[in-house]
Amino acid sequence: MRTPPRSFAALVAVRAIGLFGAVGAVGAVGLSGCATSPFQRAGNADDVAAAVARSRPPAAPARSLVFLVLAGTGGPRLAAYDLAASKILWTQPTDVTTRVEAGGNVIVHGSKGTGPAGTVVGRDLETGNILWQRPMQPKERLFGYVVDGDAVFLVVQSSVAAGRPTGALFSLDARTGVERWHHELPSGRVAGPAARGGLVAVPLDSQYVLLFDGQSGLELGQVLSTEEAANFVRALPEGLFYGSRGLFLLGRSTAHGTRRSPGYLSARLPDFVRPVYWYDLYRPEQSEYSAIDRNRILWRVTVDGDRPQFRDGLAFVHDYRFFFAFDAGSGALRWAYGAPNSDAVASADTGHAIMFVTADGEIGGLDPITGARLYEAHLPGETVRGATFDAEGFAPVGAAAASKPPDMLTALTAIIADPDQRFPVLKLFAIEELGRQPGREVTAKLIDILQKEGLAPLAYQKAGEMLVARRDAGSLDLLTAALRAHADYAEKRPAPQVEVLARAVGALGPLGRALAPDLAAELRLPETSPAAAAEIARALVALGAQESLPALRDFLSLYRADSSYERDPTALVAAAEALLKLGGPNDRALLLYLAEEPHTATGLRTHLVRALGETAPRGAAPVPPTAAAKN
Amino acid sequence: MKRQRLCVLWVALVLTLSGGSLRAAVPPIGGAPVEAPKAKTKAKAKAGSPPAAMPAARLESLRLALAGADDGAAIDAAAALGASGAAGARDPLVEILAAGATSVRAQAALDALGKLSEAHVLAKDQTTFDLLDLYAGHRAPEVRRRAIKVLGSIADARAVPTLMERLGDAAPDVRAAAAEALAARRDTKAAKRMFALLKLGDAGVAGPLAAIATPDLVPQIAELAGTIDDGIVATALGEYAKRTDVPDRLRVDVLRTIGRLSGAAATTALVEYVASVPAKDDRPSKHEAQKLLDQRGADQ
Questions:
Q1: What residues of chain A lie within 8 A of the CB of B175, using their CB?
Q2: Distance from A571 to chain B by nearest Cα, in Å?
Q3: What is the pLDDT at residue A620?
Q4: Which chain B residues are within 8 Å of A599, Cβ to Cβ?
Q5: Distance in angstroms (rounded) separating the CA atoms of residues A623 and B172
Q6: I need a surface site. Which of A309, A311, A457, B3 has the fewest CB within 10 A?
């Protein structure tokens, strides 16, 4: 075992010797002797740029594999599945704990092992046979590992009695598991690593990312993120990234990472999306196959200089059974896809396809641009607990590639109608997106949602808002039909959402006048709630529906003394206002009577006294009802 | 009190002038009650003798009490008007309903109109009909039920659509009142909706459905045994068996079906059937019912 220089300052000294000779080296060493913080060079752009320049981009792999963590009747197993050949290559009995990481010819995963802290297992990629095992010591806690070339890198936190935990980065020979070197990290607050072409990145203390030479273990640079936590590091062919709520392309411009850095990128996404660009590597539990694999953002970028852009301008969201593509700049939904039967437990953007595996053994692939189904395979009878794709650049070909893109309305409607109650916020999003789509069929679907039973109250509210906002004068017949579908116990038909429908009709203004008789008829039905009656009255005013005056008068007469309106006379007030606005002198006279009659609901009387006074014709005081009767 | 009277008349005038379902609900100010002449004639004909007139002072006193501040006095006044059987009793009741009243007063007024209808002194004029139709859609089920009951008692085809609609009411009592009214009219068109309700286990329609069911519906009712409460099926079949227009052979089949049903309601249906047959009537169905009762007794 070889232990590399411990501190960054020492590395600087080594460089300095090369560049300036002994004098310079002495000076540098002297500087390091003065240092009190291990992060004194954090954010140094030159260091980071030089480190990134050492990183050699990995060659494109010529394979398309997915490693499946299987459960069910066959017991716990790990299988390698060849996507191109659509067949399982090998299966090994094992109880996988932490996520599979694939390298050149080795895969690594966590296993329960025999010790309490678990075991890191190295397997031959071709056969799945165990190559080596590294049991974790009782005082060790594994934060993560990665395979890069012929090396495996582990970040481990060690606890010592009565002391702060310490962290260390280990390098193992990928084929043998033999330790090559280890580097004690300057903090015990560590996170899992990422590696790309010989450069290893380790997040530290939430705001730093330390960069190491994979061969020697020398520390090469320190990234300082000041506006966002550096919770993850991720290696992709297009670069090394770090970030949390957004992502930073590692490089000169992001050595000191702020959101203003040219290398910073985040997608504009709707509220239902959890902004998980990658696993939080400070949380070892996220290195296990879990819900985090089912609810996150999938992204790839293209890089122009030091500026990353989302590939094709798209960011993808995996939300359990559903996949969405959004315009990363505007947040506009491009397509939506729903896995029909069960959750997708894993997903990956290979650069050419959005690949996923469902819990019931379906392996699928979607076109990133259109959402069309590109790949489909099944593992009958299997239960998949998790999966890791090793299929960079995989582009499905063949008959499946001819499938049609998913219809947006169908996909959104399926989400809304889905009986799964886990996604209330997603359903609200789907309703909102549905409402944004053009066409009569959308109005019809929104009305259907209002009639559907079993949705969350907010879903009805959102559907109503979208229906009202549409102002779809081309769908009067649909609104009429909805209004006429009265409640009927014998036919097991619930009452229509009259309150919302009235608002939708009212929003049309005079264009909706033809619906006034149907709205007015609702005032005479027992199932029309006071809230709905109030909306009807307002809508009739908006329509200018003077033909509805008799219904308004009847409503006021019927309920003006009803004790149920004593507490909340809103509906009566709305009907009275409608009479005032639409009616003539006789209606004013009726309202005058109601204002004076002691049995009239107090709130209505109070309102009428004020409203009649405010609207009295100039120079003509309201005639008291008693006087009118005497004439 | 004087002012109350004026107010009620005043609003009636407004309504009359303005139009609406309640227009012409009450007589013009200072005028005599308006009755539809034809309806009045028919009411008299049904009653066999002209309805008694109520002294004007008494009528006025009740009218004022009905619109006054005291709920108890108003309810008493409504009851007195309903019990009077007087031709003029209808007007104050219609007035108070047209002007709008508290729920308890509206119920009392509707009950009183029901009494007048039973006494065949309630005319089937448009005003009364419109008023009852409006109250049949009131939000309070107890108000609706009473309105339906009175509406159902008016021999006028205009009431049928509302009664049919209220068969689908959310309140069981309202559905039952509508079903009873339709059954009383022998409106067989209602049988389909009533059967739909029976399939949902609505006990309130069992009797009314039996009153209008055609023979082809009886097996369908019998087939509901086991899917809804057997007692409801037994009630429906028992009421059907009691109908005088049912062939006795069919009655025997129906009674045997009842005999196969479990529960006290089935026994009650058989007992009631036996009791409904005159003692001197020695029809086979009576023997069959008795035999079934004896068997049930032995099984116990």
A1: 489-490
A2: 13
A3: 59
A4: 100-102
A5: 46
A6: A457
